Amino acid sequence: MSLSLEQISSQLDSESSRDRMIALASLRNVSAEDAVPLIKKVLNDESLQIRSMAVFALGIKPTEECYPILVKLLENEKDYGIRADAAGALGYLEDVRALEPLVRAFYEDTDWLVRFSAAVALGNLKDPRARDVLVKALDSEEVVLQQAAIAALGEIKAVDAVAQILRFAQSKDWLVRQRLAEALGQLPSEKSVAALKYLEKDSNSNVSQSATFSLQKLAEQA
Fold it and tell me: How far apart, in whole angstroms, are the C-alpha atoms of residue 86 and residue 111?
């Protein structure tokens, strides 16, 4: 049974974290305009799990209020997990104004999870201006950041970055190679096709299947 807005609002004030979590989840079928004022009620909840859910909800229930709230959380929140959630939610908004705060987070935040979320979000924005930041991320010592940067360069269609990502074709991490195979499918070039034919022979089936799928995508676009 779906809850009314009044019931959800009342349940968000419950002393039970389970009740508050259920109420927050009930907002998925509520319009953004009605949902955001209720989401704001639990942005400072004592439960980090509920706060995390609330931040995520702001990314998928976009109103004019969401962007400044998420930027403030990204830049000022003490908990790194919430900062990472805010970065991810900014990517979901697909608001190009988020480019600058996400770039700052990538360069300045001390936690790898926040930097990872910022890199993923930059890909979700699909803003080509993120190219240089994402290319820099390829040199990160954290493998997950390499994965995020490769995927994001594919998302922003950075064909001129193909040469920089091809060095990962022989990465020891199969997930890096899979992200490369997926990204190359969005970057049409002769080098991409050649690399994908190489990755089709990869010993990891996830990589080889991704390469085959990307080759099919490129062939359809030709």
Answer: 14
